[in-house]
Design a protein that fits this description.
alpha/beta; 11 helices; single chain; 21 strands; 7-stranded mixed beta sheet; globular
């Protein structure tokens, strides 16, 4: 039995810091949460609720944690489910190992994650990581959802592995045509177009993760569109060189007619910057229907938009008329969640030093001494909860 301080969600606008007892059964693993990042969906749940979340609930699924207890029957769990369906699994982690967790315990077909009818979901159904301790039940173990963190990876990097994997999932679902077969069937390579122009709209943590992944995918030119010079300075400070940052101003509250005029100016400016070509990949990595609409105007006819999914924005995007690209050669690819393989890839790249998210999160370390609403509503870079500070 572990006594644990916890942020408990009781309904829209109501989160309280409470003490709960976390008890592990014979087929459970208990972890000590070292850091837990706030997902945009959790912020939306705080304001509006969610039909899959039944209060009282403990949210939080972007975690870095340390194993403190392994149930005596965990070693007997054998028959995989979800990602490991049809496989014999062996839980070879030990007390003291650091882990992160793939939150959507999805069903799979031909290696592809199915979004509908998941087996279970961490934080929506299973109590999550806004807590000092968390129980990992057998469903997470049998599905291969517990991923070991290499020793060289910081807790900040590990907690951002899940949102980075969501970004990678959408990138790896983006198909660029590379030719045709003998019958004329199109052949595609998934990912950001190598040697092409990429554009990220937004200046937050996920925006910078996307820009970093675009560089890793070897885009030749990477543009980042931000709303203010202060945001541009933040991105420059964190990301360093190699990116073209474009400040367009904040026109979100203007009437639609003025918005459209502003967007035409932005398109014209970016045409000049790219020799009239615009972009092979456009990623609207911010919760705005204006960004979704601008996206459609920025990719070249053979380009693609990686339609990043953000919690609570679907109703906004519905007003962006994103179906207007139906008559164009280009396509829009959306994302929601990540596969376990994408999660494993991000963690491996972090361990290899191929990528790093150092400085990508809010510089304030949120703790249980802070008011819960301060953590749930924090603006700017992604906030992290450090339960033991």
């Amino acid at each position: 039995m572990y006594e644990s301080k916890t942020f408990v969600y009781h309904g829209p606008g109501v989160v309280r810091c409470e003490t709960r007892n976390i008890e592990g059964g014979p087929e459970d693993v208990i972890v000590k949460i070292r850091a837990s990042a706030r997902c945009g969906t959790d912020k939306t749940i705080f304001y509006k609720g969610h039909y899959k979340v039944n209060p009282p609930a403990v949210l939080g699924h972007e975690v870095s944690a340390e194993i403190v207890q392994i149930g005596p029957k965990v070693k007997d769990l054998k028959n995989g489910i979800g990602y490991r369906e049809g496989e014999k699994i062996s839980f070879d982690l030990k007390v003291g190992d650091r882990v992160t967790v793939q939150s959507r315990i999805a069903r799979y077909e031909n290696g592809l994650m199915l979004l509908s009818d998941p087996i279970t979901i961490l934080s929506f159904i299973i109590p999550g990581g806004y807590s000092q301790y968390m129980k990992i039940p057998k469903e997470l173990i049998l599905s291969g959802s517990v991923v070991k963190i290499p020793e060289s990876v910081s807790d900040e990097n590990a907690a951002l592995a899940e949102p980075a994997a969501c970004a990678l999932e959408s990138i790896f679902a983006t198909p660029h045509p590379v030719g045709v077969d003998r019958e004329g069937r199109h052949i595609y390579r998934s990912g950001i177009k190598k040697g092409g122009n990429a554009c990220v709209i937004g200046s937050g943590t996920v925006s910078m993760i996307y820009a970093l992944l675009c560089r890793l995918e070897e885009a030749k030119n990477i543009f980042i569109i931000v709303r203010s010079e202060s945001k541009a300075e933040t991105v420059r400070k964190i990301m360093g060189g190699g990116f073209k940052i474009i400040v367009v101003g904040d026109y979100g509250k203007k009437p639609m007619e003025e918005k459209l005029r502003e967007e035409e100016k932005i398109v014209g400016r970016l045409k000049d910057e790219t020799g009239g070509y615009l972009f092979d990949d456009v990623i609207p990595a911010c919760p705005s229907s204006d960004a979704q609409r601008l996206m459609l105007k920025l990719y070249t006819l053979q380009g693609y938009a990686v339609g990043a999914c953000f919690g609570g924005t679907h109703e906004l995007v519905d007003g962006a008329d994103i179906d207007q690209n139906h008559y164009r050669s280009a396509k829009t690819v959306g994302t929601s969640g990540c596969s376990t393989r994408a999660m494993e890839t991000i963690v491996r790249w972090l361990g290899e030093g191929k990528i790093s998210f150092k400085g990508f999160s809010n510089p304030k370390h949120f703790t249980f001494a802070d008011k819960p609403e301060e953590f749930f509503t924090a603006e700017g870079l992604k906030p992290l909860l450090y339960p033991w500070e």
